[in-house]
Amino acid sequence: MDDETRYEAVSSRDARFDGEFFFAVVTTGIYCRPSCPAVTPKRVNVRFFPSAAAAQAAGFRACRRCRPDAVPGSAEWNVRADLVGRAMRFIGDGVVDREGVAGLAQRLGYSARQVQRQLTAELGAGPVALARARRAHTARVLLQTTALPVTELAFAAGFASIRQFNDTMREIYAGTPSELRAAAVGGRGGGTTARPRPRPAPGGGPAGGGIPLRLAYRGPYAAAEIFDFLAERAVPGVEEVRGGPGPRTYRRTLRLTYGSGIAEVEEPPTGPRGRPRPPAGRVCPAARGGDGGWLECRLLLTDLRDLSTAVQRLRRLFDLDADPYAVAERLGADPLLGPLVAERPGLRSPGAADPEEMAVRIVLGGPPERAAELVRAYGKPLDAADGGLTHLFPAPAELTGADVPEPVRALCTALADGTVLLDAGADRIAAERALAALPGVGPRTAAYIRMRALGDPDVGGPDRGEPADGERGPDPDGADGPEGAWRPWGAYALHHLWRAGLLPPGELPAPTTAALAG
């Protein structure tokens, strides 16, 4: 895409490109998302940036009207398996905040200089600037949704000092933290009225009412299908789905870096054509100029430093950074899939809130109650049960010596000693090969783990990086199409086939398929 095409997207306020690029106006000093509702600036005054961090580094402030820092992430980082794609997934998971650039480089297997050079070349900003943009967004959310003292809030967002926090907020948002909080209370934040800010519970426990958030997505979103998918696989004690179809709430416990948490995500109401729509009186900025919206979420955390990591994990679970337009364009041209894509626009490929948990559940197999027995026997109980949520799913190290099937024990040992890595930026090809080599796992189960636990949309297509033995199943009904017509969206193709009954739910095409749980 060249700059003239980008300017056409800005002129038409095309929300399909929110998060794919940003534009800045030199006469005002602000940067925006493509769908910003403000008057379109003259072309001569517009500059384009591949990331919010690049716009900030160039001295531009975030638009208070369209909130460009709150757009869905680029779907490109879900697809790409190169250094930049893996680095972006690691940065989103908070690795730079916790381990610094050196830790990021070590995880990637490159020097810090190489990482800096490649990120700057593609995104206009290095890992420090990208992580800074992430911290600033987290701080703004906390300012506008909690009553935390500013000092606590700054460190919870990942800032090293109060001075750094104040300087960053002024630079990016053109206001002090107090002014940003006052604007939220006065209902001036982005055209919507801020909800009441819950007060944190004493003793470091989760906030009394949790932190309310809106998890934005682009394009149509098949919410009913993804809530059905999660409800059918919910593990009692760790997950639950409340309510009937329509107003359901998905709830689960989270094991996080600094503590634990409970997440609640609401199924959005549907419009006349069955698509999610924002509540009456509210217009999601992502919806201007096209489909889009958000999922209402509430997080109760024992340590607020885990906020941004928890948000990223939920985004992966609900596949909120997907590009349904690109998926529909690719799969819609397939004779088999075209009618299915038209019937269910915005069908997503759910990921995992905890990749290691998901891998254990898949290898364990069976109905959710089988995993629930594992949770009751080895999971860490919550200090106080919350509805049907009673435990954290056991970590792999807690299962290496447990009375579990041998394939599960082998997997947990490999996860605990680092033989298999399933973190956010893991090398997906290497992970799949290592998984397939474990006793009792095999290539098809490894591929399914790659799809769910690592959120890889490119599962099922040819030449995508198969396990070492190169085994691939046949292409049923031309599934992969000539020259890989489904790539890189094979995971979405599988979900369409499952929903249509052309493949049994949870099964992958293979000479001898085996049911996959999780």
Automatic annotation (TrEMBL):
Pfam families assigned: Ada_Zn_binding (PF02805), AlkA_N (PF06029), HTH_18 (PF12833)
Name any cofactors this protein relies on: Zn(2+)
Give the matching Gene3D superfamilies.
DNA Methylphosphotriester Repair Domain (3.40.10.10), DNA-3-methyladenine glycosylase AlkA, N-terminal domain (3.30.310.20), Homeodomain-like (1.10.10.60), Hypothetical protein, domain 2 (1.10.340.30)
Start and end residues of each HTH araC/xylS-type domain: 85-183
Query: Basic and acidic residues compositional bias: what residue ranges?
Result: 461-475
InterPro entries attached here?
A: Ada-like_dom_sf, Ada_DNA_repair_Zn-bd, AlkA_N, AlkA_N_sf, AraC_XylS_family_regulators, DNA_glycosylase, Homeodomain-like_sf, HTH_AraC
Keywords, in A-Z order = Activator, DNA-binding, Methyltransferase, Transcription, Transcription regulation, Transferase
**Alphabetical list of PANTHER family matching this protein:** ARAC SUBFAMILY, HTH-TYPE TRANSCRIPTIONAL ACTIVATOR RHAS-RELATED
What protein does this entry describe? Helix-turn-helix domain-containing protein
